[in-house]
């Protein structure tokens, strides 16, 4: 089967514009990120916190490339109030079971766009007094935001397009694509 036919089978016949990062490219970069993270944390407790749902595939691949002890938990966040207006508030719908105090926290995000999600979550997590707080994002739309202090590990600079696959969705579809595609 051709690559295009295979993609159409996965999407139910809906075309994607182009593949931006194929599965091999993702695998190679995730391996590099794992090595960088291993080197960055020589000691102390490390808790990898995946931000659901978008990071679920990235987290599962990334932790298998980190060669040191760690624990894994997830957070589910939701913004209060009117959808697109920045209220400056974020609520945790699922809170990690383990305490964060005294641990190195590595928050894992699928993609940074305006950076609002990360800024709010970082402030909320800092209140729990971790030993350190850093963010690892697979994709970063660097042109869309000012520098974000906690953003320490970035997989790829992303084009200003709408990307799907490898965990990223459009209205909950396309998360299962094994590559990242530009939807339109
Ligand atoms: P921010 O708060 O503006 O940085 O938005 C980040 C969140 O928006 C991510 O966690 C994604 O869920 C979503 N998002 C931003 N850009 C894209 C995209 O290109 N494709 C899919 N989701 C995106
Ligand atoms: Mg999303």
Strand order, sheet with most strands = 4-3-2-5-6-7
Number of strands: 9
The small molecules bound here are: inosinic acid, magnesium ion
| Low-pLDDT runs | none
Q: Give the H and E element order.
A: HEHEHEEEHEEEE
Which percent range fits the helix content? 25-40%
* Terminal CA distance: 24 Å
Please tell me how large the radius of gyration is.
Answer: 17 Å
- Global structural class: alpha/beta
Beta content comes to 25-35%
Q: Treating each run of at least 4 consecutive H or I residues as one helix, how many helices?
A: 4
Rounded mean pLDDT is 93
Largest beta sheet, briefly?
Answer: 6 strands, mixed
Q: Shape from CA axes?
A: globular
Write structural notes for this entry:
This protein has 184 residues and is an alpha/beta fold. It is 25% helix and 29% strand. The protein has a six-stranded mixed β-sheet with strand order 4-3-2-5-6-7. A three-stranded antiparallel β-sheet has the order 1-9-8. α4 links the parallel β5 and β6 (132-140). α2 (23-40) packs across α3. The site of magnesium ion has 2 residues, from loops.
């Amino acid at each position: 089967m051709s690559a295009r036919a295979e993609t159409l089978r996965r999407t139910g016949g809906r075309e994607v514009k182009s593949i931006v990062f194929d599965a091999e490219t993702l695998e190679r970069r995730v391996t590099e990120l794992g090595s960088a993270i291993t080197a960055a944390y020589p000691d102390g407790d490390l808790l990898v916190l995946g931000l659901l749902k978008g990071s679920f595939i990235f987290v599962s691949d990334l932790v298998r490339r980190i060669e040191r002890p760690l624990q894994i938990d997830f957070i589910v966040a939701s913004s209060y109030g009117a959808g697109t207006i920045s209220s400056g508030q974020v609520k945790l719908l699922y809170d990690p079971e383990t305490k964060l105090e005294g641990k190195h926290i590595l928050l894992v995000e699928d993609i940074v766009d305006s950076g609002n999600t990360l800024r709010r979550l970082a402030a909320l997590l800092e209140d729990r007094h971790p030993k350190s707080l850093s963010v690892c994002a697979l994709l970063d739309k660097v042109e869309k935001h000012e520098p974000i202090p906690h953003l320490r590990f970035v997989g790829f600079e992303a084009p200003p397009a709408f990307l799907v696959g490898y965990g990223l969705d459009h209205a909950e579809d396309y998360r299962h694509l094994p590559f990242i595609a530009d939807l339109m």
